[in-house]
Amino acid sequence: MSETPRTRLSPDERRQQIVDAASELYRERRYDDISMEELAAAAGVARGLLHHYFGSKRELFLAVMTQSVRLPVEELPDLEGRPIAERARLMMAWILEGARTYGQRWVNTAGAEGMHDGGDVQVLVDVADDRAARFVLDALGLPDDAALRARLRPVAAFIKALCREWLQRETLTRDDVLDLSTAAVLAAVREQ
Fold it and tell me: Does the keyword Thylakoid apply (predicted)?
């Protein structure tokens, strides 16, 4: 019986391999429905190696979540010289395309606030929401203002809820979500 030769990976490559495999499992199933044994098998590693790299199932989930709550910035359309309403709509269309691309995994992880008593999961969501608020302000050509960020952070939760309705429940269309999310962003940054 011949064994399949193992590929030696650097620690960073091995860690990413494990995160990628876990990501695939979380695309279709919830955190509580996946065991460490399943995570190890999906990554093609021993369970002990998961513990070596992440310590626990929760730490591995947090690593997956950290990657999933970020959308790639390099593909953002050119917004220069456009009115703020047009910028907001183009930016939201770009975000929704990212949500569609990352699909169920993004919805499952980005909407995990409140999961298992908050704590470290909530901290990740809060950091991601604040980063998203800064990104939105920059995309709209507005200054990074603490009061504007405070108004935008709750909009992130609303957008995630809209995406769940669209991608999971299929009760809203992409156009519905685009209209509602664009209006919410514009309302949040409107001068009082």
Answer: no
Q: What's the rounded Cα separation, in Å, for the pair 28 and 108?
A: 9
Under a CB-based contact definition with an 8 Å cutoff, are residues 83 and 101 in contact? no
Burial class (CB in 10 A: 0-12, 13-18, 19+), 22: buried
Report pLDDT for 129. 84
Q: State how far the alpha carbon of 139 is from the alpha carbons of 5, 16, 70, 134, 184, in Å.
A: 48, 30, 15, 9, 15
Long-range contact set of residues 113-119: C-beta below 8 Å, sequence gap at least 24:
113/157, 115/31, 116/31, 116/58
> What's the CA gap between 155 and 92, in Å, rounded?
12
User: For the whole model, what pTM was predicted?
Assistant: 0.69
Q: Are 26 and 64 in contact (CB under 8 A)?
A: yes
Sign of CA dihedral 112, 116, 118, 121: negative
Distance CA 43, CA 122 (A): 26
**Successive 10-residue mean pLDDT values, the chain, 192 residues:** 64 91 80 88 92 88 74 71 95 86 58 54 79 91 95 91 89 97 97 58
